[in-house]
Structure of LysR family transcriptional regulator:
Amino acid sequence: MDGAEFSQLKAFVAVCDERAFGRAAKRLAISPSALSRTVRSLESRLGIRLLNRTTRSVGLTEAGSILYDRIKPMMMGMDEAVSAVGAYQSEPKGVVRVNLPSIAAQIAVLPRLQQFRLAYPEVRLDLVVDNDITDVVAEGFDAGVRIGGQISRDMIAVRITRDLRMAVVGAPSYFANRPPPQAPADLKDHFCLTYKWKSTGALYPWRFEGVDGVLDVDVENVLTINDTELLLSAARQGIGLAYLIEDLVGPFVENKELMQVLEPFCKVFPGFYLYYSERSHMAASVRAFIDFMKVRGF
């Protein structure tokens, strides 16, 4: 059905409802003559009279009654559907789907989740943890979370954490048999646990601040894992050294379960950003989540 056909049917239903061209034209905000031409165009297209007209009244033919009985519920259903969708634009409700890495979920989203739920009880969050880079638009997500440098330039991004820093950590049991490294170059003498991207198979680089700038160190990978939680667990068991975001390992360093080394050399990098495709016609629930997650003061 094209736009003209829909307009004709809408005009026909309005005339049937009001039983008068004048009142129907006022309802549709058009002139009675324009309304009459629209209904006649519908009758011409269908090849049958739908309305019997006199100077004082309008009645339905048998064909008109059949069409009205079929079309009226559909029109009402469409009006109800449009109103229901409009509610999503005006008030925060419904599902917000967000794709994010596990670390971002732990340090940026989960700590604020309870406050968000209290503020917006009718919004349901669907958090999909995915440590690989995902096309959030193609996969049907409302937004995604990634480190600033990983976000495509055609996306809109808002910061949701401060700058972060990497950390090299190991368990006391691991250091019981080896001296802690004093410089990145010393890592050649240590067993290292490295994160591997699932999609590409590439290893996450061990990157440090050297005397001459950024320094990538080739480490001895005794274990590669594509899950940061397992990587952290392996480090806590003393299997080797792990290179993870400082906020993630901080609690284990504080309780002495892990020891942090090479702190002067560990890089600071842009924190996590929440990103999405466009601002226009955004559902109120998505807009509420974005505004709630923003970090002020940057």
Summary: The chain has three domains: 3-90, 94-163+271-293, 164-268.
